[in-house]
Amino acid sequence: MRSNIELGKKYRDRISGFTGIATGRHEYLNGCVRITITATELHDGKPVEPQNFDTEDLVFVDDGVVNKSFSTSGPGDVPAARKAPARR
User: Fold this and answer.
1) By CB distance 3.0 to 4.6 Å, which of 1, 12, 39, 59 could disulfide with 48?
2) Are 13 and 58 in contact (CB under 8 A)?
3) Inter-residue contact 11 to 20 (CB < 8 Å)
4) Numbers of helices and strands, H then E, in the chain
5) Could you tell me if 39 and 17 are in contact, meaning their C-beta atoms sit under 8 angstroms apart?
6) Tens digits of residue pLDDT in 33-82
């Protein structure tokens, strides 16, 4: 099942009203797709725990923090292998 949810954009859960940035996507063997939403505001001065929602329950709010100019983590330039020392 293909979801139209884009990571980095802001969504609101229709049921709970929880609002934040889509930061993760989880696909399960049974076809269920869930999205991790990370709140952008603090509660009593503390960060709010990210929550997972079914894609069907999320409503687009705005473009959030989408910025394609930053680099993602993962494989980068692979350093050249050092030459093994020669036996004498």
Assistant:
1) 39
2) yes
3) yes
4) 0, 5
5) no
6) 999 999 999 999 999 999 999 999 999 999 877 655 555 566 666 666 77
